[in-house]
Amino acid sequence: MECVGFLALTSVIPETRDAVGRVAGLIARLLNQENEQGENALLLFVQVLADNTPPGIACRRDLVALAEALARKVGQEETKESRPIAPSSPRPTAPTLEEALQFLNEGDDEKAFDLVRKLKEGGSLRFLDLDQLIATALHHREEEQRTRARDAAYAEIRVLAQSRFTLPQARRAWAEFQAEHPGHDPEELGSLIPQPEAAPKPRVSAEQQTLLDTMLDPTVPPPERAKAGQRLAVLGDQRPGVGLRADGVPDIAWVEVPGGKCRIGGDKDAYQSLPAQEVDIPTFWMAKYPVTNWQYQAFVADRGYEEETWWTEAKANGMWRAGQVKVWTWAWDKVQQKVM
Fold it and tell me: What is the pTM of this model?
C-alpha cells in the first residue's frame, strides 16, 4: 500500500528538473483537490503532519499556524465560488508545558514565562513554581553570559600570545585570567606563553644571613632580635615580600584566596549591619605579609600622599585633602593650637 501511495503521489508531480518548481507544482495540485467529503487535500495533509508532530518540537506550532491559514484561504475561495464552506476545522491545540519549556530552551524567556503563567492561572500545573522557574532561568542566563565572556577573553589572550609585540600583554592578561578562572585552560594556553626569565636571586652577605637567623630565632632574647632587625634594615632585607624590587617598587608577595560562597550579616550590633544572606565572593589576591616600613617609605618618597588616585575613598569620606590625611595631620594641628 505504501508503494502504491508513493507511485500515485509521484505521478502528479510536474516533470521539471527544478526541485523547488516540482514541490510548488505538487502543492498547487493538492490545494485544488478534495476528497469525497469535500475536504481540501493540502489542508488535510498539513493537519496530519501537525497532529503527528510531538508537542515539544518547535515546527509543530508552524504547522498548526499553516493549517489555520489554509483553512481560512480555502473558506474564502469557496465563498467566492458560492459553494458551502466545508473545510475541516484544525484541531484546537492547548498550550502545553512542553511548549513553554521549548521556548525557554530556545532563549525566548518572555514567551515561556507568559505561557507558564497562563497554564498556572488555568489550573493546569500543580507542582511548577513560576517564581523559582524564573529565578533559575535568569541564573542560567547569567551563567551563559559569564561563560561567553570567559571564552572571549581566552580567545583574545590566545591571539595576543601569537605576536612578540603583544606577548608581554598576553602574560599580564593570562595572570589576571588565571586569577578569575583558576584551572580553566582547555587548550593548554599556559604552556604556550613563555614566561620571562626569573630575576637572579639577590646575594646575601654572611652578616645579613647571621642577622636574619638571629631575628627569626625565638630562643634569642627580644632586645637582641630587635637590634638584629634594625641592623638588617640598614643593610637591606633580601627576603621576598618585605623589601623593594630592583626598580624601587615594593616587592609584594601575593597569595591567591579562592572564591566561593560565604554567609554574612545577621548581627544587628555589627558595624554596618546587613541582613543574613549568602553571597558569592570572587577569587582575589592579598599580600602575604603586612606592608613594611621600608616599602611604605618608598610610597612616601614617591609623593604618594599627594596623588589623589590612591585616596579616592578617603577623599569621599572627608579623610584626605590636598595631600593631608585627617587622622594624622589635622589631629596634630589641633594639638598645636591647644599648646599655643
Answer: 0.35
215-229: average pLDDT: 90
123: helix, strand or coil: coil
Instruction: Tell me what percent of the residues of the chain surpass a pLDDT of 90.
Output: 6
Most confident of 64-68, 258-262, 303-307: 258-262
**Position 276 pLDDT exceeds 50:** yes
Reading the block at residue 227, the C-alpha cell is: 637590634
Domain ranges in the chain are: 130-192, 205-235, 239-291, 303-340
Rg from Cα positions in the chain: 38
Q: Which residue has the cell 509521484?
A: 10
Question: What's the grid cell of residue 72?
Answer: 481560512
Strand partners, 103: none
| Grid cell in block for residue 43 | 489542508
232, three cell numbers: 638588617
First-to-last alpha carbon distance for the chain, in angstroms, is 117
How buried is residue 100: exposed, middle or buried, by Cβ count under 10 Å (0-12/13-18/19+)?
buried
Q: What value does the mean pLDDT take over residues 272-283?
A: 83
* Sole residue written with cell 545577621: 266
The interaxial angle of helices 109-121 and 130-160, nearest 10 deg, is: 170
Taking only the tens place, the pLDDT of each residue in 150-187 is 999 999 999 988 888 888 888 888 888 988 888 889 98
Q: Are 224 and 214 in contact (CB under 8 A)?
A: yes
| Close Cβ partners of 182 (under 8 Å, ≥ 6 residues apart) | 256, 258, 283
DSSP symbol at 275: -
Distance CA 179, CA 197 (A): 21
Residue 163, all three cell numbers: 605576536
- C-alpha dihedral over 275, 257, 285, 209, to 10 degrees? 130
